[in-house]
Amino acid sequence: MTSPLLMTMMLIAKGQDQDQVQAKVIVTVVVLCLGIVMLFFLLNYSNVVVSDEIMSYDGNNYLEVEEEDQEYEDEQEEEMEEQIGDEDDDQEECSSSLPVILTNPDVLDCPICFVALTAPVFQCNNGHIACSNCCCKIRNVCPSCSLSIGSNRCRAIENVLESIEISCKNIKYGCKKTTSYNKKHEHELMCIHEPCSCPHLGCDFVASSKQLYMHSYRAHTYSAISFSYDSTFSVPVTNGMEYAVLRESTDKTLFVLNYAVQSIGNVASITCISPSSVKKGFSYELVAQKRDSKIKLESFTECMPRWSKYVPHGEFLLVPSDFLESQFLLVRIQKGAQ
What we know:
By secondary structure, the chain is an alpha+beta fold. The chain contains 6 helices and 16 strands. The protein has helices at 4-14, 18-96, 132-137, 155-163, 184-190, 209-219, and strands at 121-123, 129-131, 165-167, 178-180, 196-197, 206-207, 224-227, 232-236, 243-248, 254-262, 265-273, 282-290, 293-300, 302-304, 317-319, 328-337. The strands form 5 sheets. Strands 7, 9, 10, 11, 14 and 15 form a 6-stranded mixed β-sheet that branches. Strands 8-16-12-13 form a 4-stranded antiparallel β-sheet, with no helix packed on it. The longest helix has 79 residues, at 18-96. The protein starts with a helix and ends with a strand. The model is unreliable at 48-63 and 91-95 (pLDDT under 50).
């Protein structure tokens, strides 16, 4: 197909009329311009459609990303609010129960008898304090300033005593109980974890009564006599004997048979190694025999956490020097404290 420009040039070459040639040239140029305009329009339209599609696609992605970002930010805000709430709760707990360290706990002891203060606590007009027992002993005269004391309560100190929680002094021996300071002394008098000393001479082991039993079993296996409650057993009596350790096999309790030679004869008694809270000990029998005769003691064991060699006092069995032909004592300890 011959282009208009080529046809125009051919016409000019054939010598056609110049006016006709110019008219055809003008028509050709107009057609070319229209074609260019149409082509430009079509190209622009296609770009607009494509760009709209791209923008629409990108916009959807943008909206999705924006929604995800918003959700993430909302989650972060919720977590922050929860953390702030937890911190507020912790602060409330801390504010309601603040830890207190006493650098000198003796300030809560009576300055006169040095025993832990308990309510009621009294003060004189100068602010000197004393426990109720001491007020009676000093006849209500303050030993620091000679003013009257015993009628005005020191409520501030009493509130402090009720507010302070303190661990038992026997915590390292197994006691986990905490008490208010004004009940500290009362608890320690009854604490079953009071430390007890090993009764074997030369041993300085100290622990709770149950731990002490295990120590005796392991460290002094053959230095003690094992027995069971409610059963009679014999304890050899030798020259120069001063004591014998007795180890009960069921409830892990240690006893000591005290023995001493005196001018009036031989004396013997039994001690239980236990906390001071055990007010009354175990019932026991001691019997010394000679042929058809016998001497018998029925009594209760003394209870003490720290035994040391001593001459028996209180109730004891007195055995004449020439009475122990068999060279042993019969012992029976009853089960349970009486």
